[in-house]
Amino acid sequence: MKIGVILAGGLSKRMGEGDKARADIGGKSLIFHVVDRFAPQVDALLISGDENYETGLPFVRDIKDEFSGPAAGLWASLAWLEKHHPSADGFYTVPVDGPFLPLDLTERLSATAKTCVATTSVGDHPTFAYWRLRQLRTAFSTLETTRNLSLRHLASLCHAEKVCWECERSFLNINSPEDLAAARNFILRKEKLSGAGLRRQG
């Protein structure tokens, strides 16, 4: 059973006011772009965050007084899955600000039974990953501090393998108003090209 987790627990500080999960891109909120591309790749989908953003999906909040930083969502998701899906071997993650995630993400990350992260020529993208529960639980148990744990460090503790993609745009993270504007322009260009193609066919 493939289980996906959308990491939506960030504070969006660089985006200014508002929750970036609700940011509009092409007439659709950011989280729905992610759901539309991710949901067909998994059997069950969970949101790691404070709400489900009207998606109808289950969500799990970070566990207070436990791990903090980017890994807090993984810690809460791990606990939730061990309770609700005890037979699961692991789960896939994508960030809520990754609207162009690859449509073959889980297929390619499934090639190994180990924890693995997506990588491109610009570096690793540990928010786009497969986390094996046993490795993840072991990694958390070895930590001496719970503050500001990066996913990159957590992946290294899990001895994560790397799966390479050529398209860097697929792993765009929208972390600033400039990123949001670029994503909107990209969607607009795609729509114009699609419209032009339909007119030629007609």
Task: Tell me about this structure.
By secondary structure, the chain is an alpha/beta fold. 34% of the residues lie in helices and 20% in strands. A 7-stranded mixed β-sheet has the order 5-4-1-6-8-7-9, with helices on both faces. The protein has a two-stranded antiparallel sheet with strand order 2-3. The radius of gyration is 17 Å and the shape is globular.
Topology (SSEs and partners):
Layout: E1 3-7, E2 24-25, E3 28-29, H1 30-38, E4 44-48, E5 59-60, H2 72-84, E6 90-95, H3 105-109, E7 116-120, E8 123-132, H4 133-141, H5 151-157, E9 161-164, H6 177-201
Parallel strand pairs: 1-4, 1-6, 4-5, 7-9
Antiparallel strand pairs: 2-3, 6-8, 7-8
Query: Using DSSP, what is the number of strands?
Result: 9
Kindly estimate the percentage of residues that lie in beta strands according to DSSP.
15-25%
Q: Biggest sheet, open or closed, and with what strands and sense?
A: 7 strands, mixed
Q: How large is the count of helical segments?
A: 6
Radius of gyration: 17 Å
Return residue spans where pLDDT drops below 50 for at least 5 consecutive residues: 195-202
SSE string, helices as H and strands as E: EEEHEEHEHEEHHEH
Please state the overall shape, judged from the principal axes of the Cα atoms: globular
